[in-house]
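Quick one: structure tokens for this chain, please?
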Amino acid sequence: MECAEESLDGENSFENIQKLQLLSFDDFASYCASLMKDYQFCAVRLEKGEAEQ
């Protein structure tokens, strides 16, 4: 899926992989944090059981 998206945008998969490989974990974590800074995430866990009445 990522390869298809990259090809549509004219990106080079090999260059992107090389860039990722050069990042330290701290740089990667900072980059991810900057991408997600304006978003809120939530999670819901549903379990099968009897409904309360």
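The mean pLDDT is 85.
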